[in-house]
Amino acid sequence: MKSLTILFFLSLTTLQSIAQCSICTKTAAQIGEEGGKGFNAGILYLAAMPFGIAGFIAYKWWKNQQQ
To answer: DSSP string spanning 20-31?
Structure first.
């Protein structure tokens, strides 16, 4: 049951990560198709570090809980 709860909350966060703020959407639309792809890649690049740190902490916590 605990793993289903965690999976449920993780699925909610991934839906929100796809959305962009209105300013980012407007800027990407003005840049054009190719620039918009680069803009989105930059957003994902900036988001990689916080998600990596959170994943590392979650992994360490999970390993400590197994012991």
So the answer is: --HHHHHHHHHH
- What is the sign of the dihedral through the CA atoms of 10, 12, 18 and 22? negative
Alpha-carbon distances, residue 6 vs 35, 52, 63 (angstroms) = 36, 18, 16
What's the mean pLDDT in 24-31?
A: 75
pTM for the whole structure: 0.47
Sorted by sequence, the CB contacts under 8 Å of residue 24 that are 6+ apart come out as 39, 43
Confidence of residue 17 (pLDDT cuts 50, 70, 90): low
Cβ-defined contacts of 44-49 (< 8 Å, 24+): 47/17
